[in-house]
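Bug: token stream looks shifted between consecutive jobs. Job 1:
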Amino acid sequence: MTDTDPTSTTDTDPTSTTDTDPTPTTDAPNRPPVLYPIRVLEGESLPTGIADLLADAHVVLAGYHVIPDQTAADQAREQFGERAMAKLEEFAAALSDAGATVDVRLVFTHEAQATIDRLIYEHDCLAVLVPNGTDALESVLLAVRGDVGLDRNTRLTAGLFATTDATITLYHALDDDEADADGEALLESTANALVDRGVSPGSIDTILEHPDAPLDAIARHAADHDAVVMGETDPSVTTFLFGMPAEQVAERFLGPVFVVQRERPAEESSAEESSAEERPNGE
């Protein structure tokens, strides 16, 4: 099910956004939720292979447009909303035809980073997609940094690729003070978690090494794969979309990159919810 006829609402986000509020799809809880931000009025299109790549995902398709500070979000939506939504519906239909479930959000905002970050948490997305194209899906690189994000990394990877024929390569760059045995144990626990989630043991490979520059090593290995899954290392997930490490990997790698976000601490979530309750509509 694809929600392409959402009800318009005025958002209470302090970044002055106006967005849609679609009805959730029915089977979304069984799929890994992925945020796909797209600059809908700047000529972006669905890259080759992205629809098939997201076939087993629940996609939050977030079309956004950054407006000048002096422009009201409602004014921008009145002027551009119909054209932007038509384009988003076209993208959503392509994703749905490939098998994905899709929620559509159209956002006019003064602060793109804060808005996308908010949408990630609103929809409890496991990852954000940096959408480079891919001609085929035969191999996936999962960069494993530690066991803190193991559950989310494996949930996303298995959810997207367990039913495909893709080989999943687990890569871990050892720290200077990290023993080989510790790295091997981490890769083994990650592989076991993937198998528990339905991935065939025969489709899993591992790489363990001591690189001088881990980010360069990930990009080097990524060149041999069709997609990359990597965890967030910065406090703000959205910085990966605007020049931080995952974007740097994406610049060196022609395929798509899934940035798995850290789970938001409960106290942070409660604080934001309380703050939202205190803000008047339209601010």
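Job 2, same session, no restart:
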Amino acid sequence: MNCRIIDIHTHIYPVALARRAMEVTGHENDDFKKLPIRENLLARMREAGVDLSVNLPVVSKPQNQGEVNRFAKESARKNIISFGGLHPDCENVIEELEKLKDMEMAGIKFHPPFQKVHLEDPKYGEMWRKINELGFPVLIHMGTARIVRPYDLYPSGIRKILKSAPDIPIIMAHMGSFCMMKNPNENLENLPENVFIDTAMSAELEEAGEFEEIVRKFGTKRVLYGCDFPYGSQKAAIARIKDSSFSDSEKEDMLWRNAAKILKAVGKLPENIEL
């Protein structure tokens, strides 16, 4: 099947920081063509047939807030758009949110373990209410990778966040954490329609049957294709969806249409991609 493809989950960095960004996976000495810079993402997009990628900057320290988002803004192209990174503990977080709105960022990205924050903590209630007021879609790193960390966030935490931000699209990365680490006390049940999951570093790592079971329970209208470039493979994640037993229409929902609806609602869907 041939269809549009929107990758909701990628990362790019300034050339000077690209190798440092790969240290988390031990690939900091990889060939230059594999590093997470814009030119390499564009090359991978051409190879995989991806029409649009969303860059997700991570503000690991409050003092890096401005610098990270300036790079994200400058990196945008007609086929790469950026969310804004936000550290919940930065000074004047409400003002920072207004800045991201003025910068015309497409949404907000959080990474609780890297930022060392409990996003569900009531002290962030004002922040979440402001995000809800501004209408920003939010994408959050979910679950853990190799070891459990004290700031890992699971769907139960999202349920708490929804009390302050009930209206915005909330995208739970890594299929809500199910691929990163199975947690018997967590599930994707009874989450409202504005909560989504992406397939980043999950779809291609799940057994095919398990991937399809999770998607069928959650619903294909709430699954977004993402690869987590440079840590995941665009081709492999696309193949997992295309090779599944879902209908062509359901595959299109996951590969681009669901993401397109979210981006269109905030005025960030490029004109060359029509719903």
